Amino acid sequence: MGITQHYVHFLQKGLKPLVIDEIKDNYEIFSIKKASKKTGVIYVGGGVPKNYIQQTAYLEDLFGLPDSGHDYGIQITTDRPEWGGLSGATFKEGFSWGKEMPSGMYVTCYCDATIALPLVVKAVLELSSIDFKKRIRLNFSYEKPS
Prior knowledge:
Helix 2 (22-35) crosses helix 3. The relative contact order is 0.11. The chain has helices spanning 2-12, 22-35, 48-62, 91-97, 113-127; strands at 40-44, 70-77, 100-110. It is α/β, with parallel strands linked by helices.
């Protein structure tokens, strides 16, 4: 609804609105997946975003590319598989659709994302060989322009 509101307001002002082309976006993600030797996914929650990224592997299968599933996966969710919803669907369920490779490495963390995601990011930063302290930081000014 917010994107539609943005679109209408910009048209009314004679400006070019932001347009999200879901098909083009899906094709771009598919192209990246196709060009990669191995891919991994991180699902924070589930539902539509989870289904959207899963489609990239399934599209490869539809276009005749073998072994198209993702090789690695992390899922952070509060939903359990017993209820049958996509948010709680296991990686094993994705094997049957070719969304994930049965030989891959996957982990599911049943936890609220606001707790688990910061801990995962902190662990990755601590274990990374990249010195993030030396990277160039953006300098934001929050003053109103005069």
